[in-house]
Each structure stands twice: as structure tokens, then as C-alpha cells.
Design brief:
Number of strands: 0
Number of helices: 9
Radius of gyration: 20 Å
Largest sheet: none
Structural class: mainly alpha
Strand content: under 5%
Distance between the termini: 28 Å
Helix content: over 70%
Amino acid sequence: MATALLVAAFTDLRRREIDNALNAGIALAAPLWWLSMGFGWTQIGFQIGLALLTFVICCVLFVIRQMGGGDVKLLTALALWFAPAHFLMLVVLMAVVGGGASVAMAACNMQRRPGETVRDLAAWLGAAGWVWLAAAMTWALATGRPLLAPDILASAPALTAGLTMLAIVILFTLAFAHIQRRQKSKLRVPYGVAIAAAALWVMADRTISAVHAGALLG
């Protein structure tokens, strides 16, 4: 499946679409994986139910134009392959990576206007901060480490932490508003790349965990 995900990411990046045949192939190969894993009817039914739920939610996102049709089909097909906990991790990673990529692309798509140098700089700082935050969250999720050390959280006064968070939210809000107003054209974010990257990451994590568990049992 890793090869199919790489192809999906490449085609989405190049043509902003994912072939139906590729998504169908990923979905149709899932029963072979179920058999190899020794799934019973209950587990198979659970995977199908997860895929149906994913499809319904993604269709809503498609209707409000927050997700492309190819992305809906790819994510639904992948729901057949991952247990709920791993699939949730996939979705969170997808959202974080895709969100960071969309903000970066939108910042690069801004139209500059005279007299808005300070606003442009603030928007770029906000976008860079969001991308950094997305990268940090991705690393924290992938490694299982907290985003902030517990001793830092414990030592920070509640008022200071609250004011800092409020300032960050205001900065991000103003930056994103300016970025949105100054878009040169409508962007089509290749979310298939984020989905494929998240799936590959979770697959690698699942494989490493299985090998480690086998080594401990052995």
C-alpha cells in the first residue's frame, strides 16, 4: 500500500486529483489484509463501519468545499486498513500537516499592495509561526512526547500563560485574515499529500511497534 500512497501523493501534487482506480485498488486490497491478519466478522464489520462513518463525514466536508472528491475516497479507503486508534492518529496528523501546508501556500499566494508592509510582515510571521507549530505538533504526535515539558507548564503562572495564549490567538487571527483578503487566486490545496504522508507515518509507527513487541515477547 505504501507504493499506492506515494503515487496518490504525486498525482495530487501534480494534477490536484487522485485517480479513482488507485483509490479503488486500495479499498479492494483491504480484504486481503483482513485475511492475512486473521480478522473475524466482528472486526471486519467494525472496519467497514469506520469507513462508512468516514465517508459520511468527508462528504459533508466535500459539500462545504473543504475537501476534494479524491481526498474523500482516499481517506475512506484508508479507513478499511487502520484500527480506530491508528486511524484517529492518521486524521490528526493529516489535519496538522495539511493545515500547515495550506497556510504556507496561502501566504505565498498573497498579493502585495503599497503601504501594507507591516501587515504583510505580520502575516508572514503568523504563517511561519503556524507552520512551526504544525511541525512541532507533528513531531510530538509521532514521537509520543509532549509539546511542552510538564515542568514548564507547572511553573508558568496561570495569568501569564493565559495572556500569552490570547496574544498568540490574536496574532494568528489577524495574520490569517490579512492573508485571506490578499489572495491572488483561489488555491487548491493538495490534501492528498497530507493524507498519504500521515498514513505512511502511522504505518511505519505501527510496524515499528509490532516489531518491538515481537522482540520483547521473543
